[in-house]
Amino acid sequence: MNSRHMARDQALDGWLQRVNELCGRFCAKALGDAFAGRIEQYQSGALQMSFNDIAHARLYRTERELAAGEDKGYFAVFQLEGRAQMAQDTQRIVLAPGDITLIDAARPSEFEYGESSRQLSLILPREVVERSLRFSGVRSCARIAAHTPVAVLANSLVRESARQEGLSLAESEATLDALLSLLRPALAGVDSDDDPHERLFRRAVTLIDRRLCEPELSPELIAREIGVSLRGLYRMFARRQLVVAQYIRNRRLDFCAEALRHAGSELKLSALGYAWGFSDSSYFSTAFKARFGVSPGEYRKRYRPEA
After folding, report:
1. Is 51 helix (H, G, I), strand (E, B) or coil?
2. Residues in domain HTH araC/xylS-type (predicted)?
């Protein structure tokens, strides 16, 4: 191997190591000797984004890398300069400057870069995406064109966010919510309101939100109330990559988290869990930590005003 190839391979390994630290496990291949790669991180509160400058490289994630890494949720990819090919499942798109797409970090994906390309990649926690797009599936690897109002506003928001120093956790989470609200029309599934299955699904999730506080809320109750078989209810949610019982639990936890962000320290955690349908306080704490990474008490401390 000549010195040029050795230098290229060393540069590729160094860049890939940094990518893996910030974005989870990937593999990479240089597409010729002109490879170049550099990645910089920006983090403030809940905002975790990286600026990636790449040329002549293929970055990809297979089932093997997925098994070895943690679920990073979704990547919102903003093409800043140059072009890039993105692929996931059967979808393959080309991003030009100003274009945006969403990539599911829990599924295999592939990115290919020719001439110099610059991207901003923002990590969107899975629970945040699910909360925002809960009425339909998420369209991954769908190109949101730069000229659309949604893309113009979203690009402006994310670029300005990266210039801000010291955003509080509440401010950074509000920024994520605002970004997903902007992108929702382009990212949500394309089911029609005229589709009877879609109407039934909307009835189901509306019923869930209305009766979340009731401990007896269950898939059996929901199926009976909306007039479908239990198996039909499971299929309806599975079409959107959702599990009924898990969806109910996550909705309860989301409302508990919202209460902790806004309530004072006098709120009893056991009473909060009970109010949102958790009859077992130990299970509530375990489920909350599994979803948000910290216990309910630690989560509340994040939002407690400084004395």
Report:
1. strand
2. 202-302
- CATH tag, 3-187: 2.60.120.280
Share of the chain above pLDDT 70, in %: 92
> Which amino acid appears at position 50 of this protein?
S
What phi and psi, each to the nearest 5 degrees, are found at residue 47?
-85, 115
* Gap between the Cα atoms of 121 and 21, Å rounded: 14
- What is the tens place of the pLDDT at every residue in 95-124? 999 999 999 988 899 999 988 899 999 999
Read off φ and ψ for residue 172, nearest 5 degrees: -70, -35
Class of domain 196-302: mainly alpha
* Helix, strand or coil, per DSSP, at residue 276: coil
Structure tokens at 158: 């994310």
> To which H or E segment does residue 94 belong?
strand 91-95
Matching residue, tokens 């925002």: 132
CB-based contacts of 180: which residues, under 8 Å, 6+ apart?
124, 128, 129, 132, 133, 187
Find out whether 188 and 144 touch, Cβ atoms under 8 Å: no
pTM for the model stands at 0.70
- With tokens 């959702």, the residue in question is 242
| Confidence band for 192, pLDDT divided at 50, 70 and 90 | very low
Res 80: pLDDT: 95
Q: By C-alpha distance, which of 32, 119, 113, 45 is closest to 75?
A: 119
The answer to whether 71 and 130 have CB atoms below 8 angstroms apart is: no
Question: Which residue type sits at 89?
Answer: D
Whether the CB-CB separation of 248 and 223 falls below 8 Å is answered with no
**Residues forming beta bridges with residue 249, ordered by sequence position:** none
Which residues in the chain are classed under CATH 2.60.120.280? 3-187
